[in-house]
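To the wet lab folks,

You asked to see what we're planning to order before we commit. Fair enough. Below is the target structure as tokens, and below that is the sequence we designed to fit it. If anything looks off to you, flag it before the synthesis order goes out.
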């Protein structure tokens, strides 16, 4: 107990002192020079293009996708130009991002954290142009999200709905008879219960969102660096006491090493580093000895890449009307109408039991065909006219995101493993990480249960929303 008290005290002290330690290592600029640099940032067209390869920044974010850029947005929104933020991203074209996807918002979760993050995400996107000071069409389309439950899991759904309503979610439980009356083309023979959201659910264009968010971050002074992270530099801090760490052996990360597209090797000094590199996060964490060290460094960051196939179907008839909600089946199948087109988008929640290397057609025949024909018999002869593949990062430990400081490298804040929830949770995650950095605590949504520490204590955070 005494050692744990020391650890908590050290971590609290170090969080508050990161910026003080960092500022001592950097030569302070003359006030006039500092003012001129700020003016140059405000008027780049007058002073020319600014060098994007910085030597130091208060905050370095690794990963410029939706999570990393959301964190940058909130840091700059909270602290303005008084806080320097640099984002390192190896693909500033974001060609590997989920560019053409229409992402969904829903609140059908069993974890309070996921419910609250989704609620805030929906509010943020509803007011997106106001938040971005822009006039971007993100194709936000409000509609419900209908989840179906089998007899085996109907009680679970009722429990989750009660929890959701306690957190302000507005939804409606539907009997099989009501579902059949509203959507007569749905086979409800093996459906015991349904739940549809009546507010803060819908879809939006993720590519438009990411583009606008990155531009807003740049407008506020965030520097995006086209580079690939290659390592970290550490420095000894012999005065730090931490449970499980031999006295005098603690080493703190303080620089990120990176390589430019031209092959130039450089580094950048920081006070705090945010790791939001998606599926690459585990490999980058390993560069800081996470998963290959001893004690608190012995446990790896369990983040991997996972792909999902999305099929566009077209048949002689499509009973799914424009106002029909996205439907998530009890089997894990999901489907929705594809906008104004007489087409249906179909996918399936990832299955660990299915070989990810099988062909798209084989995946459809093995995983999707039977449950789709069972739930919507009229689509039995629908033809696949297009297939797209999306890759997401997921947490192999419990399939829930890891958010917060690493227990050893407390100036390394992790935000990874969101699976398909990255876009709808990004606004809340960005705000929460900014609170952690600036206020040293969460203010709006408490996310302590999502910290890396749960891997040390074997406390999983499993989302139970498939029925």
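Sequence we intend to order:
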């Amino acid at each position: 107990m005494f050692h744990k008290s020391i650890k908590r005290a050290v971590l609290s002290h170090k969080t508050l002192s990161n910026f003080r330690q960092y500022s001592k290592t950097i030569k302070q600029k003359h006030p006039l020079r500092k003012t001129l640099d700020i003016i140059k940032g405000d008027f780049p067209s007058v002073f020319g293009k600014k060098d994007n390869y910085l030597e130091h920044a208060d905050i370095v974010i690794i990963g410029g996708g939706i999570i990393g850029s959301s964190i940058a947005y909130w840091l700059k929104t909270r602290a303005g130009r008084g806080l320097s933020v640099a984002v390192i991203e190896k693909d500033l074209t974001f060609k590997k991002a989920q560019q053409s996807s229409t992402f969904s918002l829903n609140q059908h979760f069993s974890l309070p954290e996921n419910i609250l993050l989704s609620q805030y995400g929906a509010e943020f996107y509803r007011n997106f142009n106001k938040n971005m000071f822009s006039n971007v069409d993100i194709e936000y389309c409000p509609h419900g999200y209908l989840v179906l439950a089998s007899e085996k899991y109907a009680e679970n759904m009722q429990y989750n709905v009660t929890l959701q309503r306690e957190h302000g979610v507005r939804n409606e439980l539907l009997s099989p008879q009501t579902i059949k009356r509203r959507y007569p083309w749905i086979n409800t023979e093996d459906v015991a219960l349904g739940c549809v959201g009546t507010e803060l659910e819908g879809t939006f264009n993720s590519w438009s969102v990411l583009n606008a968010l990155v531009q807003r971050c740049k407008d506020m002074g965030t520097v995006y660096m086209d580079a690939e992270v290659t390592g970290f530099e550490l420095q000894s801090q012999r005065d730090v006491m931490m449970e499980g760490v031999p006295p005098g052996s603690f080493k703190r990360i303080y620089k990120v090493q990176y390589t430019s597209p031209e092959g130039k090797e450089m580094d950048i000094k920081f006070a705090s580093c945010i790791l939001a590199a998606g599926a690459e996060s585990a490999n980058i964490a390993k560069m800081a000895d996470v998963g290959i060290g001893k004690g608190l460094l012995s446990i790896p960051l369990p983040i991997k890449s996972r792909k999902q196939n999305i099929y566009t179907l077209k048949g002689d008839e499509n009973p799914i009307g424009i106002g029909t909600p996205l439907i998530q089946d009890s089997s894990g199948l999901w489907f929705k109408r594809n906008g104004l087109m007489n087409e249906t988008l179909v996918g399936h929640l990832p299955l660990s039991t299915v070989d990810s290397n099988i062909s798209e057609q084989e995946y459809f025949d093995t995983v999707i065909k039977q449950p789709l024909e069972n739930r919507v018999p009229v689509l039995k002869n629908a033809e696949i006219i297009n297939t797209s593949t999306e890759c997401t990062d997921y947490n192999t430990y419990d399939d829930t995101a890891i958010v917060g400081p690493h227990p050893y490298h407390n100036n390394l804040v992790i935000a990874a493993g969101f699976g398909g929830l990255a876009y709808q949770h990004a606004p809340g995650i960005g705000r929460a990480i900014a609170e952690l950095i600036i206020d040293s605590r969460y203010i709006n949504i408490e996310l302590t249960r999502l910290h890396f520490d749960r891997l040390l204590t074997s406390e999983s955070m499993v989302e139970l929303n498939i029925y």
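Structural context that might help your review: DSSP finds 13 helices and 19 strands in the chain. The domain at 124-204+304-392 is CATH 3.30.9.10 (D-Amino Acid Oxidase; Chain A, domain 2).

Thanks,
Computational group
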